[in-house]
Amino acid sequence: MTTSQDSLRTAQTLVQQCQGIHQHGIEALARACHSGRGLSAERLDQHQLLSFELAWTSAELLAAQNALTQVAAEPDGLDAELTLVFSVDAITAVLPRLDMLYLELALDAAPLHALRISDDWATLRRAAGSEAALARIGQRLQASQVEMGHVPLDASIRMVQESFQRFGQEVVAPMAEHIHREDLTIPETLLQPLREMGVFGLSVPESYGGSGTGGEDDNLIMVAVTEALSQASLGAAGSLITRPEILCRALLAGGTEAQKQDWLPRLAQGQPLCAIAMTEPDHGSDVASLTLRAERVPGGWRLHGAKTWCTFAGKAGVLMVVARTDPDRSLGHKGLSIFLVEKPSTQDHAFRFEQPEGGVLTGRAIPTLGYRGMHSYDVSFENWWVPDSHLLGEASGLGKGFYFNMTGMVGGRMQTAARACGVMRAALLAAQRYTQDRKVFGQALTQYALTQSKLARMAARYVCCRLLTFQTARTLEQGGSLASSLVKLLACRSAEWVTREALQLHGGMGYAEETAVSRYFVDARVLSIFEGAEEILALKVIARGLLEQALVSSPKDKAI
Fold first, then answer.
1. Considering only CA atoms, which of 286, 290, 345 is closest in space to residue 313?
2. Which of the residues are catalytic?
3. 109 domain-assigned
4. The whole model's pTM is what?
């Protein structure tokens, strides 16, 4: 057995030990939040900090475990060394979280303390977390020509990936700075070639005019394309197919056959483009409390209310609107339905459209520090008429909008992790190039140990997020909804840190708008906010899901 194999086995043992300790904490917190009939919302709120940290611990340990499994076949490869670096960082981060969890729940922390002082933990830190080890791995990274985060893909998927990588670097990247600095809407010179390449039909089955085959390859292609376009520009290309992904999944889950036949072929052609109108000014990610009202009228519905952070609402020709169709607010999410609201497409940052029936639809682009190109809008509906045929699922879809929306969001979160990976990759490659070219005190910046250590840790985080994103894509259709939330949580925050470090390595030039890394930094900041803000995602989706799983596995547990 080689030294690398020894280190990987040690890391796997330590991660498994952390997971065991963590699982014990999850079970204890589930008991603490159990009311006799299930989880108590009041008790969950009392333990928000513990739940938040529990979600982060789950995400980092899952990423480490997944990567360690995948790189085991090539223990001496660069990805294996980077995975060891991430494993050290992950365990270092989770130990104090577990300390707090065990302290708050009055659990026996002896196993945790034993791990902290174990020879295995000291050995792993020396092998992959010490100053000398990080410098050595950083040097290897800079000298290597091997793809970071290598994922075995079929030749057909690899061909699609390479096609969009070329398009991203040759067409999107040269336009990205201009679109960002001038705050432009994505031009047709980008959109039309992407339509012709079939990018909007990736999530549409072949039977409805798209390229989807119904297998795991669909999600792998979606992730590969999204990462490639996001590497070129998050705002000008990388986010274009997230909204069609969400809408198409919702249509496939709840649409009538007539609606599928009508909408899916057109969405696959990018005619119309679409936007998602879910968030409201007073409710944010609290979908169950949405108030935009749909009033029943002969032949259709009248929409009254406002939405915000509706990305691409100007250019879009159809909005997927989550509205309250039952006036009884006590029904919460059970009173929500989805409407497909058609509107004229516009490049403008503000619009106003009027219907002959008297309805008015207005929108205003929200100025943002990054993520420009698509623009997010405040949108207001005043007596806006929508025909019955545009209620998703028609009569059978009434009150089911929340579930259709959540079905769409599962794919959207996985895809957002891919967007984060694309931005991380762009920032990391930019930092590698710059530190090789930039000379400080007589030698290249990349020759300094601190630079080498930074690059090693940045690459380690990118590699493990990428490996988990692709693995989630492989298993999404077999119940990977929780995994998609975990990888979204981790990859998006990681993108913030990696782009921050990349900018820092550029020094003053990193703060200049003319340098691409400044755009990567401000674009990355939005990733932890949309498709489920990280706090809501951690508390309401991940932590709650893990606690519910723990109760199911131990149904006799009672509150403590």
1. 345
2. 531
3. yes
4. 0.93
